[in-house]
């Protein structure tokens, strides 16, 4: 079998051949010195391509134990893999942000920004691209849920409030994986796109992922941050849209957004609709009187609770059993539905109604207070200063 010497030995042998009076000690010393020099050279060549990538540092706004907003600085390691450094241009304010206001973490999960720098494995995005990101940070990308496009249910999913606690969309910059970023269509402004990153994805997923048909009657319960977006999506899908709200205070606005029918529920003993409801999206923070709602649901209707509620879900048993009703939980849309949502909104000129606030301690506090008091119309958007 042919044997060859290691590269360093071959180079060394060539160097010392013909040099007289080299003792074994000299030989060993010379080889050690030569080998060390070669090793340093090879190490330098290996790391030099990455030595120019800087560690990004930027301003973030965090929660605190007393609920006050704290301005802070965070530093991230040099970009690796498909990581992207983004300059934040807008951030939506979501009800979930209120839940983390007293947590020591970077707030915000409805981000829009511009690509500033890309890691070595980024393939589809480049400097200057407008992108957005939402509630999910990461997933394993190998389990059955991930492979079939349901990564929001991955057992190893990383969601807002669980991962990357040193950053959020209430910030001047962010570092995000390309795999969980979404390109923003040119037709959507930053301010319009930001609330769609969670609110829009949530309601669109309830409609699109469960095969809503244009012949269906879809009811939206509540005209707020989620509800006013859901009305637009359902209407543009061609559905007959019924809005259920406590009072008729928002009736005119709901009709302008695309509703075909409006029903005020407060104080009602019985509800009447033009057509039984095939799909009900519940966007209110409080659960309705289900005994009042059950009679207006069509056989086989589905109910989609979309807001966060720490209590129990209680529904009359016999109406559910006898009419084949389905109660369907869901979270934000997976990535392929999320991108479809943005494209659909751009095509049909769907945009949230927003109030803008400066992204400062005072501005964030004002926006959160307004949202908490139910005074926001209808989504708050924070703009970096």
From TrEMBL:
It holds the Pfam family ADH_zinc_N. The chain crosses the membrane at residues 29-47. Keywords: Membrane, Metal-binding, Oxidoreductase, Transmembrane, Transmembrane helix, Zinc. PROSITE patterns: ADH_ZINC. Residues 67-382 form the Enoyl reductase (ER) domain. InterPro entries: ADH-like_C, ADH-like_N, ADH_Zn_CS, CAD-like, ER, GroES-like_sf, NAD(P)-bd_dom_sf. CDD domains: CAD1. It comes from the Eukaryota. GO terms for molecular function: oxidoreductase activity, acting on the CH-OH group of donors, NAD or NADP as acceptor; zinc ion binding. SUPFAM superfamilies: GroES-like (SSF50129), NAD(P)-binding Rossmann-fold domains (SSF51735). Its cofactor is Zn(2+). Belongs to the zinc-containing alcohol dehydrogenase family. This is Enoyl reductase (ER) domain-containing protein. It comes from Acrodontium crateriforme.
């Amino acid at each position: 079998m042919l044997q060859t010497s290691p590269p360093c030995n071959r180079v060394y042998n060539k160097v010392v051949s013909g040099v007289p009076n080299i003792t074994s000690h000299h030989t060993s010393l010379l080889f050690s010195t030569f080998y060390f020099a070669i090793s340093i050279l090879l190490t330098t060549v290996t790391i030099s391509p990455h030595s120019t990538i800087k560690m990004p540092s930027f301003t973030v706004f965090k929660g605190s134990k007393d609920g006050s907003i704290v301005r802070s600085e965070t530093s991230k390691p040099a970009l690796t893999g498909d990581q992207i450094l983004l300059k934040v241009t807008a951030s939506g304010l979501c009800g979930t942000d209120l839940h983390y206001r007293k947590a020591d973490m970077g707030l915000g999960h409805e981000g829009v920004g511009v690509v500033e720098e890309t890691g070595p494995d980024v393939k589809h995005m480049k400097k200057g691209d407008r992108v957005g990101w939402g509630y999910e940070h990461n997933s394993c990308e190998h389990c059955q849920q991930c492979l079939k496009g349901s990564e929001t249910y991955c057992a190893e999913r990383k969601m807002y409030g669980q991962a990357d606690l040193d950053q959020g969309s209430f910030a001047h910059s962010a570092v995000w994986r390309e795999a969980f970023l979404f390109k923003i269509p040119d037709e959507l402004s930053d301010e319009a796109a930001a609330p769609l990153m969670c609110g829009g994805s949530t309601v669109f997923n309830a409609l699109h992922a469960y095969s809503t048909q244009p012949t269906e009657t879809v009811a939206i319960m509540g005209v707020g941050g989620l509800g006013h977006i859901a009305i637009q999506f359902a209407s543009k899908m061609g559905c007959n849209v019924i809005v259920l709200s406590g009072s008729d205070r928002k009736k005119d606005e709901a009709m302008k957004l695309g509703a075909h029918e409006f029903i005020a529920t407060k104080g009602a003993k019985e509800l009447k609709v033009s057509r039984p409801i095939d799909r009900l999206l519940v966007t209110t923070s409080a659960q309705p009187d289900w005994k009042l709602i059950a009679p207006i649901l069509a056989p086989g209707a589905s109910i989609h609770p979309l807001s966060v509620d720490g209590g129990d879900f209680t529904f009359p048993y016999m109406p559910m059993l006898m009419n084949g009703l389905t109660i369907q939980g869901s979270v934000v849309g997976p990535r392929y539905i999320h991108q479809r949502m943005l494209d659909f909104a751009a095509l049909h000129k769907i945009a949230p109604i927003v109030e803008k606030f400066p992204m400062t301690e005072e501005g964030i506090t004002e926006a959160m207070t307004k949202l908490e008091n139910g005074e926001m119309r209808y989504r708050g958007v924070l703009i970096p200063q």
